[in-house]
Amino acid sequence: MTSSRATLIQVAQRAGVSLASTSRALHGTGASPAMVERVRAAATELGYSPDAIGRSLRLKKTFQVAFAVADIGNPVYVEMMTAIHEVLAPHGYRVVVMTTGDTTTSTVELVRSLSSGFVDAMILSPLRTDDELVEEIRQAPVPVVVIGRTLADRGIDSVSTDSAGGIGEAVRHLLGLGRRRLVFLNGPLDTTPGEARQRGFDAATRADEFAGERADAVVAADFTVAAGLAATRALLAASDGGARPDAIVAANDLLAIGAIRAVRERGLSVPDDVAVTGMDDTEIGRVFQPSLTSVSLGSTERGRIAAELVVDLVDGDAQAGRHTAVGPRLVVRESTAAAVAAPEASGQHQASDAVGHGATAEAAGRGTR
Amino acid sequence: MTSSRATLIQVAQRAGVSLASTSRALHGTGASPAMVERVRAAATELGYSPDAIGRSLRLKKTFQVAFAVADIGNPVYVEMMTAIHEVLAPHGYRVVVMTTGDTTTSTVELVRSLSSGFVDAMILSPLRTDDELVEEIRQAPVPVVVIGRTLADRGIDSVSTDSAGGIGEAVRHLLGLGRRRLVFLNGPLDTTPGEARQRGFDAATRADEFAGERADAVVAADFTVAAGLAATRALLAASDGGARPDAIVAANDLLAIGAIRAVRERGLSVPDDVAVTGMDDTEIGRVFQPSLTSVSLGSTERGRIAAELVVDLVDGDAQAGRHTAVGPRLVVRESTAAAVAAPEASGQHQASDAVGHGATAEAAGRGTR
DNA sequence: TGGGAAGTTGGAAACGTTTCCAGACACGAC
DNA sequence: GTCGTGTCTGGAAACGTTTCCAACTTCCCA
C-alpha cells in the first residue's frame, strides 16, 4: 500500500526518535526495550526493509560473490555453481554468475572489473591461465579463489583436481581387467584439460606395469559426442586389418559416448569387445546405456570447498594462499564391467542398479518445467 | 600498486578540479576538451574505476537482475539461465541466481526480499503458484517476469509454454505412425507440470481422431529415470497377457529413458515394438541411444524472451502485463522413427545424423573441466 | 550530597556517486 | 557599450545506511 519503499529516516520520524536510535533499535545493539518496541512498531507499520545498497555503501560489503566460468551451461560448472550456492546462501551471500570468455585476455578483463566493487569475492575457473592472469588475480581488490590450477605458490587460494592422475586410474582399471591394447581419445590439445589429460595418459602408459603393451592416442576435434564418434570411426577403420583396440580411454563422457556409438556401429560390443571409460561422471554418462565407467573429478566438492574458502576469507580472518586438491575417483559401471551374459542376442545389457540410485537420485525432479 | 581503490574525489584532487566536473568529464557530458583530457589523465594515473555501490545508491539502479527457480541444477533452468545471461550481459546487467525453495510460501518470501532493492528486476519460474504469490508479485517493488503460468490478466509479465498441447502433439505424432495403444507415463500429479501434462493427455485422447483407441496412464513416483523404469516395468508386467502398449508418451525425457530401458529389458525393441516420446528436449535425450523423440518446450527461447521483457521494463518504457507464449515443438528422432533394418540381430540402430549436429553442436566444448 | 560509572539518546559524519543550481566567463548582436 | 545567450565550472545536496562522539539521564556508592 505504501507508495514507495520506506526508508530508515521515515521509520525514525514515525517513531519520533533519532535516526541513530532507530538503526540501533533494529539491530538490537544498545537500545532500551522501550525504544526497540517503539521502533519495531513503526517499522512494521511502514513495511520497512533495509536498503541493500545503502547498507553496502556504509559497510563496504556487498554480500555477493561472483562465480565466473567460460560456459555456464557446462554440466561440470553447473554442479560447481549449485554447490557454491548451497554453501554461500546460508551465510547470506548472493551468487552472481559471470562468463570469462574463451581467452585469457577476456578473463583478465573480468578480473579487472572487480575493481568496481560489486562483489566481496570471486570464484574463478578459467579455461586457460597465463602469467598476466595470475598477476591480475594477485592484485585484485577482493579475494579470488581459483578452481583449476594450483596457485598456492603465488599466494592465491585454489582448489585443484588431478585429471592426469584420473586418466591414470582409468588406464590401470582397464589393465586390471586384462585389456592390453589401449587408445586414448582426447579432445583438442591446446586446452588445459586436453593438455593435462594427455600428460596423464602418457605417464600412465610409460609406467612399468604397462611395459610392452600398446598405447595409441587420437585427438577429436572437440569434446563432443559428434567429434568422438568421428574420431573413433576413423580409428576403427584404420585399425581394421591390424590389432583392434580392446579399450578406449576417453577424455570426457561425451567423447566416450561417441566412441561407444562408433564401436557398436561396427557390430562390436561394449564392453565385451571394447571397454570404454569417460571422465567427469556426468548424469548423461550415468543414464546412458551402457552406463559409463567414468572418472569423477569431484566438481561438486570442488565447488563446495571453493565456497568455504571464500567464506573464510570474507567472514573469517583466513589468509590467502591455501590450496586443496580433490582426488579423482573412478566410478565403475557397465561400459567396462566384466561381461555379463546378455538376455538377448547382442548388445543389450541388463539395466544395472547403478542407474536410478546413488548419484542419479540427487537429480530427483530434474529435467522438467 | 595503489594501496586501495581510488575514488572520484581523489581523481578530482589529482586533476585539481571539482568533483562535479570530474564526474562530467568522465561521462563526456558538458565538459570542455581540456577538462576531459585532464581528468582522464588523472583517472588513468590513479587507476580509477567507478564504485558500483556508490553509483547504484545515487542512480537507484543496481544493474542486476535476479533469476529464481526451485533447482538451479535442472537442465531446463540451466538453459533458461544461459539464455537470460546472454541477453542481459550486453545490456550491462549482471545475473544473480536464487532459489525459490519447493513451496509457495518460501517463494513468497523470496519475492518479498526484493524490497531490499538489490536487483532491478526478477525473472521467476515458480514450481507452483497460488493467489498469495500472485499478489506478492503484483506488489513487488521491482518488475517481476514470470516464466510459467500466464498472468497477463493480473498485470504481470509472463512467458508461458503449452506443455499440455505438447503432449497432444506427441499423441498425434504416434497416431500418425499407426500406433493405437498409448500409455501416458507421467510424474507426480500434484506438481504443476504433472497436472498440466495429464490434462494434455486426457484432452488429446478424448479428441475425435482418437475415438475407439486405447489410452491408459500410469504415474511414476518422480520425474526420474529410476521412477520411469519402475513404473514401466510394472506396466509391462501387468499388460503381459493382454494387449501390450505400442507407444509410451512420457512426461519428460528422464521418464522416457526409464521407459525405454524397461521395454528393452523384456526383449522388445524401441521403436519397433514400442515407440517412446519424451518432453523437454534435453541433451541427455539427444545423446541417448536410441535418440529420443521429444517435445521441446523452448526453454532457451522462454529465457531469452523473459530477459528481453526485463530489458524493456527496466531500460525502456514498457508497461507490465504483456504475455508471450512459446509453442511446443516436436522433435522427431529414433525412438519413434519408422523402423530401420538394424545391422545386427537386434536393438542396435544406426547412429543417426541427428546426434552431433544441430542441437548437440550448441554444446561444443561442454562436459569437461 | 557529590561524583563517577553505566546506560541511552541524538547530532553529525561518512561511504562514493550524480546532478541541480547558480555563478563566471566569453562571445556575438544590437 | 550593454545586454543576452551559450558554454563551462564549482558548491552542495541527495541517495540510505551505520557508527563515532558528545550529551544527557539515572543510579549507586562513597
Can you walk me through this structure?
Two copies of one chain form a homodimer. Chain A has 369 residues and is an alpha/beta fold. Chain A has three domains: 8-50, no CATH class; 64-162 and 300-328, Rossmann fold; 164-296 and 330-363, Rossmann fold. Chain A has helices spanning 8-15, 19-27, 33-46, 52-59, 75-88, 104-112, 131-138, 163-176, 192-206, 225-238, 253-265, 283-287, 299-314, and strands at residues 64-69, 94-99, 121-125, 144-147, 158-161, 181-186, 214-219, 247-250, 275-279, 293-296, 323-326, 329-331. In chain A, strands 2-1-3-4-5-11 form a six-stranded parallel beta sheet, with helices on both faces. In chain A, helix 10 crosses helix 11. Chain A starts with 7 loop residues before the first helix and ends in a 38-residue tail after the last strand. The model of chain A is unreliable at 339-365 (pLDDT under 50). The interface between A and B is large, with 92 and 90 residues. Strand 2 (94-99) of chain A pairs antiparallel with strand 2 (94-99) of chain B. Chain A binds a DNA duplex (30 and 30 nucleotides) through helix 2 and helix 4.
